[in-house]
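sorry for the late reply, my laptop died twice this morning and i had to redo everyting from scratch. anyway the thing you sent over, i finally got around to it. pasting the sequence first so we're on the same page, its 376 residues, then the predicted structure underneath. double check i copied it right bc i was rushing
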Amino acid sequence: MNRLLATALCAVTTFASAYIHAAEPASDAVKSELRTVAMDQSVDMLERIEAIKGMYPEMLAEDGSIPTRRICVWDIAGKNGPIYNAAVDQVSELMRWGVKIELDAYTSESVITEELKAGMCDAALFTGLRARLFNRYTGTLDAIGAVPSRDQMKLLMQVITSPKNAERMLDGQYVVMGYAPMGAAYIFVNDRSINTLAKAAGKRVAVLDYDLVQAEMVSQIGANPVPTSLVNAGTKFNNRIVDVLPAPLAAYSIMELYKGIGTEGGIVNYPFSQITLQLVGRAEKFPNELAQLIREDFFGRFDTIERLVKAQVGDIPEQAWIDIPADDKAEYQVMMQEARIQLREREYYDPAMLTLQRKIRCKYEPAHFECTNPVE
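ok and here's the structure:
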């Protein structure tokens, strides 16, 4: 994760530098031919860059330089965090490409979201839960129970990175420029008897304070939603303000969730969802052909990013895990499927992404109940 933003910025700069000395705007026919070259993964990278250069000469400044791009970075630790510092380390290297990058760190996802909307950020790096506000297709990568394993997530990202899916990355004035795995989220509880969602009835469950749909879903299982932000979620769990907290495994150490677990709680040993980090840009600043190259670069670093994420998890003691019986696990899967379908009907999740995820699950487990009578 420490190199993720630096990777993205380096890719942006490398590809953007090819715009210099471009010709006059191309005709529609020529532009179409250039786009075919730019989106062809079998073509040499330099040729693809030259094609993009020919498509968008109007994006250059009058002096032929590349205008400054402001990248807003969400890092819970601000300028002292690993993501932001990785970006700062790359600035001097990026300058040799003739591009100035203005970096800003944000500890609040809500603030960075509003600044991207207002055009104060040319691009923003934040969680997939926030990215869903800008692109429902990639925002559904984090759907409840949709991607049970690491291998399934890698295959899913490989499929959506194909140029055939490029148009899905555009949504109005925004374009998804990259997505990276941040590991699975699990259910942390302060009582080991809460080993399934069904048994959370009557308990206090942390939900994101900006997402009313999450609160409604929690209420439907008879639990009590407690609005919280990413910043104070750990504190609420450790102080027993909430009984149930969905969180990535790295939170065990980073947020000291072992304090909230104590001697009676634990981590339900079944992934609740997969978490992603996504880079979303303004399309007038980053055309989709350029974004395609950056998306490919992101995917090419999947294994490296995953290793960095795992390194932050650290050691979790065996006794912290709560194993669930096979029957309860089947019930868990059915409940999550029902939740996904309901959220799809409410246009919270993207149906095409849910279908793709189901096909990938069935590729790995063809005998699973959902594969003989698919409803997603």
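Residues 11-23 have pLDDT under 50 and may be disordered.
thats about all i looked at so far, will dig more tmrw
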